[in-house]
Amino acid sequence: MVRSSAIPAGQGPFFDELAVGQEFGAPAVTLTEGMAAAHRAILGDRLALALDHELCREVTGGPPLASPALVWDVAIGQSTVVTQHVRANLFYRGLTFRRAPVLGDTLRTRTEVVGLRQNRPRPGRAATGLAALRITTTDQDDRAVLDFWRCAMLPLRDPDSDTGHVDDLDQIGQDAAPPDFPSIVAGWRLDRLARRSAGLAFAELSPGQRLSVAGGDVVSSAPELARLTLNVAAVHHDAVAGGGQRLVYGGHAIGLALSQAARALPGLATVAGWHGCDHLGPVREGDTLRSEIAVERVDRLPAGGGLVHLRSLVRADGQPDRDVLDWRYVAVLA
After folding, report:
1. pLDDT band with cut points at 50, 70 and 90 for residue 7
2. Number of structural domains, the chain?
């Protein structure tokens, strides 16, 4: 291993270097067909409107859609300029699409520190704190695309520092205006997608149903996904930072869960937002992930199809199996 006494360049902030109100930016990213193909090769995107450009024009009346998973992966990746030293992500909350981006759009993301809480010291553990971040993504015309909150655990540069940060992070995002989920698919002809889709349609779903997705998916190309989406969190690239083995980016598990949901529900048009997402345990490259999907609520749309509030519970194979993800989201289904 190469060792150096040089001061690291391009290093993100530690917890004790953050203050509420700070804002950070990252390079903008243009969503291209090549980027979408690379993303699909890792996560297996199966959303028909992101795969079939002609069907997408027929349903939406516009150019090819970008997969929503690609969009949130880029936004999260752009926000990691603040969380390069992250030890864990505790939650994502209130993720809402304001419009459905298309290939050719350029995404810019602003990350603001909105809450800080230093963790109580524990013997034998590094000093850490929790940083709540508000992530806002816009496109090349300054149109709102996506916004959400995430909470990251970061180490302190000075382990003996007492920052005095005691914010109540449970309230972060709770006072946000109710999302207008139907607005992103206004004018879409979901009936055209329904005619092309096999499997369960919106009208066949009801609260309380549970779907066990057949087959699992191996987690592969983890650092490639991080690089593709500008994710600079060291634990995804550097085994030393990961405690001896790299951690897989949380969005990797979410993307595979979406791919599995689309296998179970081929009429899934897009994702309008998330209620929340909790990472229940670490995911490692080579793990095989399996999903069970619960239908929590259904809301019919006036022009056909509707919003389905889903909960994907994901586990990794093992002895015993491990729960790794609890993701609650709002899907648009034909």
Report:
1. very low
2. 1
Find the DSSP H helices in the chain: 33-43, 48-51, 53-60, 68-79, 190-196, 222-228, 250-264
Instruction: Judge whether 146 and 98 are in contact, CB under 8 Å.
Output: yes
Question: ∠ CA(14), CA(279), CA(295), 5° rounding?
Answer: 145
- φ/ψ of 253, rounded to 5, equals -65, -40
pTM for the model stands at 0.92
Domain of 231, CATH number, reads 3.10.129.10
Instruction: Determine, yes or no, domain membership for 7.
Output: no
Host domain of residue 183: 15-333
Cα 227 from Cα 206, distance rounded (Å): 39
Whether residue 9 lies inside any domain: the answer is no
**Other beta carbons less than 10 A from residue 140's beta carbon:** 12
Compute the distance between CA of residue 316 and CA of residue 309 in angstroms, rounded to an integer: 23
Is residue 43 situated within a structural domain?
A: yes
pLDDT value of residue 143: 97
Tell me the per-residue pLDDT of 251-308, one tens digit each, with 9 for 90 and over: 999 999 999 999 999 999 999 999 989 889 989 999 999 999 999 999 999 888 999 9
Residue 106 tokens, joined? 């350029």
Give residue 8's pLDDT: 53
In this structure, is residue 302 part of a structural domain? yes
Q: Which amino acid is at 99?
A: R
DSSP line for 237-306: T-TTTTTSSPPPPHHHHHHHHHHHHHHH-TTEEEEEEEEEEEE-S---TT-EEEEEEEEEEEEE-TTS-E
